[in-house]
Structure formats: structure tokens, C-alpha cells
Design a protein that fits this description.
mainly beta, Jelly Rolls, 2 domains, 6-stranded antiparallel β-sheet, 5-stranded antiparallel β-sheet, 3 helices, 24 strands, 6% helix, flat
Length: 339
């Protein structure tokens, strides 16, 4: 046996402890007869990332979807007897059980004036207790993450979902006016009959533009859209890479991660509305475009031109194909309300 205890192929008893090697953490926990702290349904090839922190008054889990597509997960947490809140770090929304609002979640605490994805919670804080675990269904957008917080006594062994009713109000088709800033290589404005990547343009100034360009159009809002208890969201489908939405000159927020949705209810009015969507893309596009031009015609670091962008360091290195830019897909207005 020796002074420090028994040695086997992949574990070693050392004093009052044990060391393991050559086996997975799951196998170690199985040998210790310790249930897993977190498990979930979903793809075995791309499971969610997670971490657990214990606080004096709460159990705090961070769960992140690592897939490039939305996922539905039944997440199992080794916690029982505590109420559940879902916190969304992009906008400070929390979901819990003290009533519900139009989007099917409870705004326990709203942190105002935060930039980010200001979309409503995707699902209420639904849960069920099963054999030493609390099971929480999570609907996560592409690469989305949430905090799942357990604290205070659970009001019941389970909580049922309130599924909000979603109605498509309008698809905002073309034409769109797209305005570009001066001295950045692009024309002052173009008309787009349908949304497509700037890199699809035959105009090199648009194809290789980097910076912020603004889409605008007028949207007619009929009286039927304005119903008590109903919120109106704008869904941008896909953004490359950051978008700020203004309605009638009022900013309704920034979005840079799926789902690209913002609540426009407070800014929208009956009749004609001016919609502006300012999209900022990567610096890469202009760098690639300038490599194709003689030095004297490059946009970056134009000598004597006020407002021209400065040349970056490391000019001449990097990718050869400009990444997709602008608004892609469909822009729609959606009404959301509780049944």
C-alpha cells in the first residue's frame, strides 16, 4: 500500500483525497457517485458552454449557445426548491414569475439606456422539478447566452409557459435609399430595390465601402397596428455588422447579435413614419479595395481631404475577399402580445 495509499491505473488515493488521470470528468463524477451539475438536450457535437458560480443567496449559471443557428434546449440544473430567473446580458432583462407582459416574460428589472440587443425575452422563466434537478427550457438565438439564476423559495414545483402570439404586420420591401458619408469612396446615395450585401454591388465604391451607411424609407402605420397590450418589433433578419434603428428621429437601440430585433412601439405613430437604419461594417472591405488601387487613388489616408479615414497599420495584409456587409434578408414589423 505504501505511505500514501493504493495506486491504480488511473487514480491514486493521496491522504484523504484522490487524484485521477487519463479519464474524463464525467467518469470521475460517476466513480464518486456525484450527479452532473448541468446537462442539456441538443446536439452532442456542439453542446452549450456553461459555468456555475455559487453565491451566498443564489446559484448562478451562465449558458451559451455555441452554434451558428438558433437552438432549443431543455437544460437540467442540479438545483431544487429555488425560484428561477433568466437574465439577458445584452439588455438587462430578467424573466420571473411576478406576472407577465405582452412579450411573454416578466420585466423584473429593466436597465435603461443600455446599448445592445434590446429584444424582449424569448421565453418566460418556465421550469419543472425532476429527480433532484430543475429543468428549464431555453430558446437561444445564434451564439446567444443567458444567465440562469436560482434564488428565493420556489412558489411551486413547476411553472407553465405563457406563449406569446406573434403576428407579422408588414414586410418592408424596396425601394430603400442608402446614404453614404462623403470622402469614403462611395456615392452619396443609391437606391436599392431589394436588400443585398454591399459587396454584391458593381460599383467599387459600394463594394469596398467600410464605415456607416444609412438605409431610409417611409413606413405607413395603420390604426389596426395600435392595440392595447401589443408591442411592435422590427426584425432585421441579418445584420453585418452593427445596426442602430431610428423611428421618426428617435433611436430605439442598437443591435449586433441575433435575433436582430428591436421594440419600436414607443416611437411608431399612426400614419407616415420615417425609418432609418444605420449599419456599420468591418474595416476590412476598404482595406481590400485600396489594395486594388494605385497609391494616389486610395481612399485611406487621403492627403488634404478633411474627414477622410486614416490608413490603418499593417496595410496590405489580411483577407482578399470583402465580407458581407449591410442589411441582408428581409426587414419585417411584427406584433407580439399575450394570448
Amino acid at each position: 500500500m505504501g505511505r500514501y495509499g493504493r495506486v491504480t491505473l488511473n487514480q491514486h488515493a493521496f491522504g484523504k483525497g484522490m487524484t485521477y488521470w487519463g479519464i474524463t470528468l464525467d467518469e470521475v463524477l460517476t466513480r464518486l457517485k456525484t450527479p452532473r451539475d448541468f446537462a442539456s438536450s441538443g446536439s452532442l457535437d456542439n453542446p452549450p458552454a456553461w459555468v456555475h458560480r455559487h453565491a451566498p443567496d443564489a446559484e448562478i449559471y451562465f449558458v451559451a449557445n455555441q452554434a451558428d443557428a438558433p437552438v432549443h434546449l431543455n437544460a437540467r440544473f442540479r438545483v431544487t426548491g429555488k425560484d428561477v430567473q433568466i437574465w439577458r446580458p445584452m439588455d438587462g432583462e430578467m424573466t420571473a414569475d411576478k406576472g407577465s407582459n405582452v412579450a411573454g416574460y416578466t420585466s423584473v428589472a429593466r436597465i435603461d439606456q443600455r446599448t445592445g440587443n434590446r429584444q424582449p425575452g424569448i421565453q418566460p422563466a418556465v421550469y419543472a422539478t425532476e429527480s433532484g434537478y430543475t429543468v428549464v427550457p431555453l430558446n437561444l438565438a445564434e451564439r446567444e447566452s443567458v444567465f440562469v439564476i436560482f434564488r428565493n423559495a420556489a412558489p411551486a414545483p413547476s411553472r407553465a409557459a405563457i406563449t406569446p402570439v406573434e403576428t407579422k404586420l408588414a414586410a418592408l420591401s424596396g425601394p430603400w435609399t442608402l446614404n453614404f458619408p462623403p470622402n469614403w469612396g462611395a456615392p452619396s446615395s443609391i437606391q436599392m430595390q431589394q436588400l443585398a450585401s454591399w459587396t454584391d454591388s458593381s460599383d467599387p465604391g459600394v463594394k469596398y465601402f467600410s464605415g456607416t451607411a444609412t438605409y431610409s424609407k417611409t413606413v405607413q402605420a395603420p390604426a389596426s397596428w395600435f392595440k392595447p397590450g401589443q408591442h411592435i418589433l422590427i426584425d432585421l433578419d441579418k445584420v453585418r455588422d452593427i445596426a442602430e434603428v431610428k423611428v421618426n428621429g428617435k433611436s430605439v437601440g442598437l443591435t449586433w447579435a441575433p435575433p436582430y430585433r428591436l421594440d419600436v412601439s414607443a416611437a411608431l405613430k399612426l400614419g407616415a413614419n420615417k425609418l432609418e437604419i444605420a449599419v456599420t461594417n468591418e474595416w476590412t472591405n476598404r482595406q481590400i479595395g485600396d489594395r486594388l488601387l494605385p497609391v494616389e487613388k486610395r481612399i485611406l489616408a487621403q492627403p488634404g481631404v478633411p474627414g477622410a479615414p486614416a490608413a490603418p497599420t499593417g496595410f496590405g495584409f489580411g483577407p482578399q475577399i470583402p465580407p458581407e456587409s449591410g442589411l441582408l434578408g428581409d426587414v419585417t414589423l411584427v406584433a407580439v402580445r399575450n394570448p
